[in-house]
Prior knowledge:
Elements: H1 3-8, H2 10-25, E1 27-28, H3 38-44, E2 55-56, E3 59-60, H4 66-83, E4 87-89, H5 95-106, E5 112-116, E6 138-142, H6 153-163, E7 167-170, H7 181-190, E8 194-198, H8 203-207, E9 220-224, E10 235-239, H9 244-251, H10 261-273, H11 277-299, E11 303-304, E12 313-317, H12 325-335, E13 337-338, E14 340-342, E15 356-360, H13 362-366, H14 371-386, H15 391-405
Parallel strand pairs: 1-13, 5-6, 5-7, 7-8, 8-9
Antiparallel strand pairs: 2-3, 4-10, 9-10, 11-12, 12-15, 14-15
Helix pairs in contact: 3-10, 4-10, 5-9, 6-7, 11-14, 12-15, 14-15
Amino acid sequence: MLRNTYITDPEIYEIxxxxxxxxxxxxxxxASESTAPLEVMELSGSIFTNKxxxxxxxxRFQAGSHEADRLEKLGVExxxxxxxxxxxxxxxxxxxxxxxxxxxxILTTGDKVLSMRLDQGGHLTHGSSANFLSRVYDYDxxxxxxxxxxxxxxxxxxKAKEIQPKLIIAGGSSYxxxxxxxxxxxxxxxxxxxxxxxxxxxxxxxxxxVIPSPVPYADFVSSSTTKTLCGPRSGFILCKKEHSKALDKxxxxxxxxxxxxTTMAAKAWIFKYAATDEFKNIxxxxxxxxxxxxxELTSHGFRIVSGxxxxxxxxxxxxxxxxSGKLFQSALDKVGITVNKNxxxxxxxxxxxxxxxxxxxTSITQRGLKEGEVKIIADIMNQVATSPEDEExxxxxKRKAEELISKFPLYPSGSFND
Length: 418
Ligand SMILES: Cc1ncc(COP(=O)(O)O)c(C=O)c1O
């Protein structure tokens, strides 16, 4: 691995090798993470790094685009086929820039947008005051029902009628349930709004057809490619044919510059791989593992937000254990289990402390862990939560976690030996 860097910059080499070791020895359960197949790594660092290119096949701003044209056309066709979409744009660099591309295509300054609250499951790029776009567009929010902790569709309808937004956004980063895309699509139509679904988190589950797809109901579907899709650090957008010209303009020149052909190649690869039985079986097991984790944690006295999960995310309310998300994240980190603190709906704690954690099962499922191993992880988590500041307890838990994960290599042995 990194033969040349090893010679020219041992300092950077060492950091990368240490990161490989960290991932290998830890139980990675950040819900937005996955393990990129080796082909995705290869392609992400390919010779296409050297090529600068803007525009679209047939109307480029630079010469020398023959191979890049072949690549982009192939990637677009694969994305369309995988998701049954009428049009795809695969130039965006990430899930965030995918959203910016849609905004640039259809919104002008001051337009009203209705999206899910960040502290109840939405995303920063959907209008958070921390994001610069909150100063450009006029965002308003819907949330979840306090009792069910599921989207309050009636309140969403009401708000849509009241504010008459130009765009309604569904999808988020910490919502563990399925979303009724058809219903929100109807609401959008009834008020003359565009409907965009940000499926960044669930795009792998959608590709594998193990959960419903937003594509038939949404004008635009944005996504990153690093989460359940298990691809490179990038993004893409799907849309109805009638919006294709506006979308492509919104992406380039609307919101990005030259393409990243390296990750575009890796995206094209993952769009093919995601149609295989191997990938579909991993995604099926992701759903089984997340349900199992929710059940096991419940049996240990944790409260699961909304009672269960219907995707790869388990949202855990830690108040019954008398600990904060911040403390639990840090104690689990010492044990070698990586999760992130996360606000739960109506959280009395700040985003820096939180009453909950968000746990994802994509990476562990890719490594081959099944229900039996998920039960062991839940048992370790419970033992950590019982005495999160007792260093002896954490040492015992660390040994158990290491023993478990050492049986499931991150990559086949020898993958990085050259
Ligand atoms: C729903 C959602 N949209 C967009 C993004 C941003 O994706 P990226 O990090 O690829 O820019 C995220 C990332 O966490 C997300 O959860």
